[in-house]
Amino acid sequence: MPEPEIRELRYFRAVAEELNITRAAERLGIAQPPLSRAVRQLERRLGVALFDRGGPRLALTRAGTTLAEEAAVVLDALDAAVRRTRRAGLPRDVLVVTAKPGIATELLREVGGRARAEPDAPELRVVVSGFGEQADLVRTGRADAAIAGCFHGHGLDTEPLATEPRVAALAEGHALAGRDVLQAADLAAEPAPRWGGSPVLDRAFWLGHPDRPTDGPVVRDTAQLLEVVALGQAVALVPASLAVRNVRPDVVYRPVRDAAPYRTLALWPAGSRSPGIAWFVRTARDVAAALTAGSTREGARWAG
């Protein structure tokens, strides 16, 4: 039979991610019967079962899991190609860049200032994004480049920009708050906040003790994170720059001697030859070096 159509792959992806025909149909804005027929048609084209329909809920087969991974690459690449092609048709070189609030957006502000001062620099359009969203925005072409922390997955090149310690954020009255320096093992029994939507690899990094995770409340931004810490619902490992920017009487920060550091990276599509992206990465590296040199003393405070 003919090869799968892009429409069928999009339908399959929605069902594979939702594992529920009703929710997938609502997400796609179509009725359930044509969605079910499209998935069955795709299975006939490929000659394999993509879903196990015999259990209490829909589940991917081994073949379905493989297609879900491969289809994501294809669909993301297609979406990115369409969006970047449209931007390439603009009269001026426009670069969409993204970062989450914090040290990353501080870097973007400085890079944007340099772009406005250089006649040959691209026009930067900044998108402020949430935790863990930067890599997907670049992969799908909604952004051309990003400044981000840890990420997982495929299709991106990276350039290290800055490294800083991570510190424990604790409620003001927490038993560990009386210690000057902590070890990661000290946090092993503490509930840790769960970043909404973050993959397993990222959760392991943020927990600091992936072998013995004790999950706390789900959070989606820094404000939520610090509130659950202040209420004693969780202990969080956070970048030292976050501690510097968020001094408050009900939260204390303590160095964690053996916690893996937080790294800030520039991300862009793998193999890109865009002069605008090359300018952005080069400038972000220069700006980060200048900012790091100016904050060395503050960072040493958290070295433990």
From TrEMBL:
Stated name of the protein: LysR family transcriptional regulator
One cellular-component annotation, GO: protein-DNA complex
SUPFAM superfamilies to which the protein is assigned, alphabetical: Periplasmic binding protein-like II, Winged helix' DNA-binding domain
Keywords for the protein's UniProt record, in alphabetical order: DNA-binding, Transcription, Transcription regulation
Highest classification ranks of the organism: Bacteria, Bacillati, Actinomycetota, Actinomycetes, Streptosporangiales
Listed transmembrane segments: none
Family: Belongs to the LysR transcriptional regulatory family.
Pfam family membership, one: HTH_1
InterPro entries: LysR_HTH_N, LysR_subst-bd, WH-like_DNA-bd_sf, WH_DNA-bd_sf
Origin species: Actinomadura rayongensis
Annotated HTH lysR-type domain residues: 4-61
GO molecular function: DNA binding; DNA-binding transcription factor activity
